[in-house]
Amino acid sequence: MDVITFPYGPLGSNMYAVKSGDHAIIIDPSVSPEFPLVRSKLMNAGIDALILTHAHYDHYACLDEWISLTGAKAYLADEDKEFLNDSSLNCSRGFGESMKIESETSDLGESLDVSGFSSMKIIRTPGHTPGSVCILFEEDKVMFTGDTLFEGSVGRSDLPGGDTRTLLASLKIFKDMDDDITIYPGHGGPSKIDIEKRYNPYLSL
User: Using CA atoms, how far apart are residues 129 and 43, in angstroms rounded to an integer?
Assistant: First the structure.
């Protein structure tokens, strides 16, 4: 399994392409599929799913474009669905935009079965938003943490729908995870669960 990172915009959000053979999944589709680097990296790869870790606009800015081009199914926790077309909730209003999505999304369960990928576990981690999730590929020991867990930090809980107490409760999930899991966050670079357990001050609360 290969992970390709595509940074997006002034907030430095990460879009990820997860490739397995000729199959690919897009996580947090914030970069246009027509962007030259995206086209070159994903040439001949079939896009089988689009997964949102949460519904802040900088993590799904190009969702409609991806769906229109690929026909892939989009997934988002139902708790965040109302964010998609509410510029206050999805935080686009604060940047002078009014982000609205025309496409439909399907709810995320405890796991997701997508062609070419196995053992994909959906972990509910509310706090940054009510529907925030992490996506764990158990066999590959790779996890996409959205804006829940960063290298050395965590996501904000003071935005609409956020809750500090709920976020701190969600963070406890990581304390029991395997040390050798690599995390790919919604902003910043990758890290290891072991490193976060030892040095991330929020995991000691």
Answer: 33
**Which residues does 162 contact at the CB level (< 8 Å), separation at least 6?**
127, 128, 129, 155, 156
Helix (H, G, I), strand (E, B) or coil at 85: helix
Model confidence, pTM: 0.95
pLDDT tens-digit profile, the chain (205 residues): 899 999 987 778 999 999 998 899 999 999 999 999 999 999 888 999 999 999 999 999 999 999 999 999 999 999 999 999 999 999 988 766 777 888 899 999 999 988 778 779 999 999 999 999 999 999 999 999 999 999 999 999 999 999 999 999 999 999 999 999 999 999 999 999 999 999 999 998 7
Domain ranges of the chain: 2-204
* Domain 2-204, architecture per CATH: 4-Layer Sandwich (3.60)
